[in-house]
């Protein structure tokens, strides 16, 4: 079994956390390989939206993963999650599922509460995550209220990043039932935020890994 991890941005914390969750979900025999293009997120961030060239390049990375023999692909960038959505018909035709890291996290947030706080360090991640929350809420027959938590922490060192996110979580606590961390790179702060604010706090790596496992089982692959 061969799985592609597609990154458009990454930190050591994200890689370590994500690969540990994928290994836990898939077992030690799964072959993991990574495709990385940080310039793609930089282009989206600079433009303020997903540009046509960014979309084309990410879809090209999916096709490259298929050409390298991937049985499934995990899309790790929430800013580009809607590109993964747009690719789904091709993925079904090819027979290689493209799994979004954040979709099942968003479903769990909708299950847990109506008022959902969304923490992000980039507007280009905040809005797609909110779009996904609204979509899955509609699919689940529920109404949600979303509260923005945009944090100026992009590029901060680990300690500063943690402190800024905890402060932002505290500022949301009275207005939300659950907090969603819009970027996988935030996962290492998840438990700290939850302990500090007293609200369920969700990050995407473990949900993405579980969804990847389910997609592989859906193909009839033994884990």
Secondary structure elements and their pairing?
Blueprint lengths: L1 E6 L4 H15 L4 E6 L1 H10 L4 H16 L4 E4 L5 H6 L1 H7 L3 E3 L2 H10 L2 E6 L2 H17 L5 E6 L7 H15 L5 E4 L8 H8 L3 E2 L2 H14 L5
Helix pairs in contact: 1-10, 6-7, 8-9
Provide structural commentary.
The chain has helices spanning 12-26, 38-47, 52-67, 81-86, 88-94, 103-112, 123-139, 158-172, 190-197, 205-218; strands at 2-7, 31-36, 72-75, 98-100, 115-120, 145-150, 178-181, 201-202. It is α/β, with parallel strands linked by helices. The chain has two domains: 2-101 and 206-218, Rossmann fold; 103-203, Rossmann fold. The strands form two sheets. The protein has a four-stranded parallel beta sheet, with helices on both faces. The protein has a four-stranded parallel beta sheet with strand order 6-5-7-8, sandwiched between helices. Strand 5 (115-120), helix 7 (123-139) and strand 6 (145-150) form a beta-alpha-beta unit. Helix 6 packs across helix 7 and helix 8 runs parallel beside helix 9. The longest helix has 17 residues, at 123-139. It is globular, with a radius of gyration of 17 Å.
């Amino acid at each position: 079994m061969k799985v592609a991890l597609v990154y458009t941005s990454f930190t050591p914390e994200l890689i370590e956390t994500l690969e540990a969750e994928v290994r836990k979900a898939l077992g030690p025999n799964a072959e993991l390989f990574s495709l990385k293009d940080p310039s793609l997120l930089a282009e989206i961030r600079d433009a303020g939206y997903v540009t046509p060239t960014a979309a084309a390049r990410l879809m090209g990375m999916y096709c490259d993963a298929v050409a390298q023999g991937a049985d499934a692909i995990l899309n790790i960038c929430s800013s580009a999650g809607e590109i993964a959505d747009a690719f789904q018909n091709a993925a079904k035709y090819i027979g290689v599922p493209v799994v979004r890291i954040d979709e099942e996290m968003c479903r769990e947030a909708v299950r847990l509460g109506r008022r959902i706080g969304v923490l992000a360090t980039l507007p280009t991640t905040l809005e797609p995550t909110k779009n996904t929350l609204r979509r899955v809420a509609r699919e689940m027959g529920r109404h949600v209220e979303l509260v923005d938590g945009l944090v100026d922490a992009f590029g901060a060192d680990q300690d500063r990043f943690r402190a800024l996110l905890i402060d932002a979580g505290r500022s949301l606590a009275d207005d939300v039932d659950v907090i969603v961390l819009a970027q996988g790179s935030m996962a290492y702060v998840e438990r700290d935020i939850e302990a500090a604010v007293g609200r369920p706090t969700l990050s995407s790596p473990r949900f993405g890994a579980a969804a990847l496992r389910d997609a592989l089982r859906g193909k009839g692959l033994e884990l």
